[in-house]
Structures are given as C-alpha cells and as structure tokens.
Design a protein that fits this description.
Length: 470
C-alpha cells in the first residue's frame, strides 16, 4: 500500500509537470499565432488604404513611421524582409551605420516557400535558457501576390506557468503528505490485524514440544484463510500428541527390552563358571578321596563368589530402576566430599573448595555416591603406565548453587561417545555394567540440577555437576 501510494504520487507529479509544459507550449504557439494574425490584419489595412503602388520598396516608406507603433501596440518586435531575404525595415533600434544588415538564410527561404501554409515557425534556445520562437510569413498585395516577408521574434515567458507549477506542487505535497500518513496508519492497523493470528500461531509453534500437552488455538470469526491455518495447526497438535504417546510407549518398551537383555547378559556371565564348577566336581568326585573336604570348600567358595556377583548385578539394576527416596538433611557439603575421598589411597587426588563450610539440604549418601563414582571413573580413565597422574576435585559455591567438578588427565572421551555417556549400560571399561553415570544423572535431575562433561582426547575430562542450594 505504501509503495502504491508513493508510486502513484510520483507518477501524478511527473504527468502533471509534463502537462504543464505541454500546456505552456500550446499557449505560446497560440499566442504567437494570434499576435501574428492581428499584426497581419493591421498591415493589410494599411496596405489597402494607401494610394501608393505597393511593392517591396514601398514597404519601407509606408511603415517607416508606423512600424514602431505596431510594435508597441502588440508588444512584439516586427521585421520586414524582401523575398530574397534582405532586411527592409525593423522595429528594433536603428542599426549602426556601416554595420552589415541581417539577412535570412536560404534554408529559411526554402522552407517558407515550400510550406503548405506559407508560414513557418523556428524555435531556438539561447545561452541563458530563454526560448525564442520566430515566425515567418508572406505579406501579400491586393492581388494576393507575395511582396515581402513578415518576421516576428517571440520570446516565451513561462514565469506564469512556472508559478502555477510551484503552487500546484506545493498544494499537492501537502495532500500527498496527509495521504501518506493516512496510508501508513491504515497499513499498520490492517497488517497488525492480519498478522495477529499469524503471530499467535508462530508463538504457539515456538512453544510446541513433543513431551508436553500443547494448547489449541481458537478460530477467528470471519477470517477463513487464517481459520484454515488454525485448523491445520490444531490437527497437527492432535497428531503430535498421539505420536508422543506412541513414542513414549515405544521408548519404554525398548528401554525395558534393553534392560532385560543387559540383566540376562550380566546374570549369564556368573552362571557359566558355576555350571562348569558343578560339572567338574560331579565328574571328579571320589567318595574315598581324603581331600574331599578341601575340594568341597573350594567348590563352595567358587559358587558363593559367583552368587555374590549375581547379587551385585541384581542390586545395581534394582538401584537404577527404583532410586531410594531422598533423605535430605542440613549437611556440610565440604565435609561430606572430604569423607567420600577418604576411601581412596591415591596420592594424586587433590581437593579444594572456595569455602571452608557450605551448608545445604542434601541426601548424605547420594552426595557420597556421586563423588565416589566420579572419582573412581577419573582414576580408571588414567592408564596405569602413565607417569604423571592427577585427579582434581573442586567444590565451588556460586550464588544459590554449588558446583562439584572432577577433572582428570586421562585418555579423554571420543566425540561420538559424549552423546551416549549418560545412557544406561554404556561403558568404556571391560568390566562393570555402565550404570554409574546413569544413576548419577538420575540423582542430579531429582535435585533439579545439571551434569555436563568437557573432554579432549589425550588430555583428560572434566565432569561438572551443578546443584541448587536447598
């Protein structure tokens, strides 16, 4: 709308200027023609009322005293030339003595002679920009015979039209400005009304998530196009909710299938040596062997060891499947972390805190579990053959939260492993069930905290946990 307003206004201005120029041109041509006809009528009257025989030579005598009168009456310069283009008489100030008289060019004489109307008008623009129209026409005697050429120079004075153009543009600019302001306001309110529903849909789309119930939009009365878009959005919300339910169910089923596979795998590992031990004992059992008691003890210890392994597997998966409820109490976090580090004998484990005492409402056992698990992973990430080993445990109190970080200078983590490191059963070690970091993440999320990892291959990793101070 603004473009059309500006474009139409510019177009109207250009057309108006062209029209004024054309009108001014027409006005001057008509004015010159009227003046010329009036002067010719005046000349014809003088020629008809003279007693002399009218020839080119008598023109100078007849109009010697009257040419200035004619010039003053019609406010134009008047010149008479003979048929060969020589100046006979002029209303201009007398030419200086000895100065060569002006003469018409052969080109003008030829054009005048061959013109149908026996009249031509030449237009010239002077150096100062003034436009001069010069008319040439024949003067005839009573027998309609050409006896001389009448020349009338006419200077176009466009001051009046220039003033008219300025006044028009001034008035038009005022109207145009008012129209432009009106167009801006109208465009703003129209576009705001049109885009209001689109903005609502855009905002809803930005808030649309798969794991939550999304609100639908109400239809707009009288706006069929927007309502079509709203109906499509509401249909998408229904399908998204249906897809989310199917996806959640599929993920649960997949998670439990994977968990069942892992449990079966971990339980199957100790069952194999147990079966071999029983078969070996059954095959080699001799009632008369005096070492039966020792062999029975060895057999029992092997079975007990494997049963303990199976118990540990079951306990680990049980802890992951159903975390115990948090027993929060006011504890000194610095003291708890130091207590958790006392079980490690490695001298390269360092601990520092920006506060000597940090109190918060946390589950003491869960804080110990987080610390020991992260430190144990950090120790295992450093190769045994590495000479310089370092594990730095740092506790920082920042505003309304605490940040616990465990840094090692081990081998680091591969980029593709960073995305799955907190998933259950993921592990980079040859032993273990890969539930340690998954359990830690579960504990941290229960506290509405976050856990992140930064790593560089060959230089080590840093696990950072941020927990709000409750």
């Amino acid at each position: 709308m603004l473009f059309l307003t500006v474009f139409s206004s510019v177009l109207i201005s250009v057309v108006s200027l062209i029209h004024f120029r054309y009108e001014a041109k027409e006005y001057h041509e008509e004015r010159l023609s009227r003046k010329e006809n009036a002067i010719k009528e005046h000349i014809d009257y003088i020629l008809l009322n003279t007693d002399q025989f009218v020839t080119a030579k008598t023109i100078s005598v007849l109009f010697k005293d009257r040419i200035h009168e004619l010039s003053d009456i019609h406010s134009l310069e008047i010149n008479f030339y003979d048929l060969k283009g020589r100046l006979l008489i002029s209303s201009k100030t007398a030419l200086k003595k000895g100065k060569r008289l002006p003469k018409l060019s052969k080109k003008i004489l030829k054009k005048l002679e061959t013109s149908n109307e026996k009249r031509i008008v030449e237009t010239n623009e002077e150096a100062n920009g003034t436009v001069v129209k010069t008319s040439y026409t024949y003067i005839k005697d009573a027998n309609l015979k050409n006896i001389a050429i009448l020349n009338i120079p006419y200077v176009e004075n466009s001051d009046f039209y220039d003033e008219e153009v300025r006044n028009f543009l001034s008035r038009y600019a005022q109207v145009y400005f008012a129209m432009l302001v009106f167009s801006i306001l109208l465009s703003y309110f129209l576009s705001k009304n049109i885009t209001k529903s689109l903005t609502q849909i855009s905002q809803k789309l930005a808030l649309t998530k798969l794991n939550q119930r999304n609100e639908k939009l109400a239809l707009q009365p009288g706006n069929h196009e927007i309502n079509s878009l709203i109906l499509s959005y509401n249909l998408m919300v229904d399908k998204l909710e249906e897809s989310a339910q199917k996806l959640a169910q599929s993920e649960r089923e997949h998670a439990w299938r994977e968990m069942a596979k892992q449990v079966a795998h971990e339980i199957k590992n100790p069952l194999t040596p147990m079966k071999l031990t029983v078969q070996n004992f059954q095959r080699k059992f001799n009632p008369t062997d005096p070492q039966n008691v020792q062999k029975l003890n060895d057999y029992s210890e092997t079975l007990i060891q494997q049963i303990d392994t199976m118990t540990a597997v079951a306990s680990a998966f049980s802890n992951f499947a159903s975390m115990p409820l948090q027993q929060n109490e006011l504890v000194d976090v610095v003291k708890i972390i130091k207590m958790a580090l006392e079980i490690f004998n490695e001298e390269y484990i360092l601990f520092n805190s920006n506060e000597t005492v940090i109190f918060g409402n946390y589950d003491k056992s869960q804080l110990i579990r987080i610390t020991t698990n992260l430190v144990k992973n950090a120790i295992q990430a450093i190769p045994e053959e590495q000479e310089e080993k370092l594990v730095v445990v740092q506790l920082i109190k920042s505003n309304n939260s605490i940040i616990l970080s465990v840094q090692d200078n081990g081998v680091g983590i591969e980029n593709e492993q960073k995305e799955v490191i907190f998933e259950p059963k993921f592990t980079t070690k040859s032993s273990g069930m890969g539930l340690g970091l998954a359990i830690i993440k579960n504990i941290v999320e229960n506290y509405n905290g976050t856990i992140t990892v930064s790593t560089e291959r060959g230089k080590g990793s840093t696990f950072s946990i941020e927990l709000p101070l409750n």
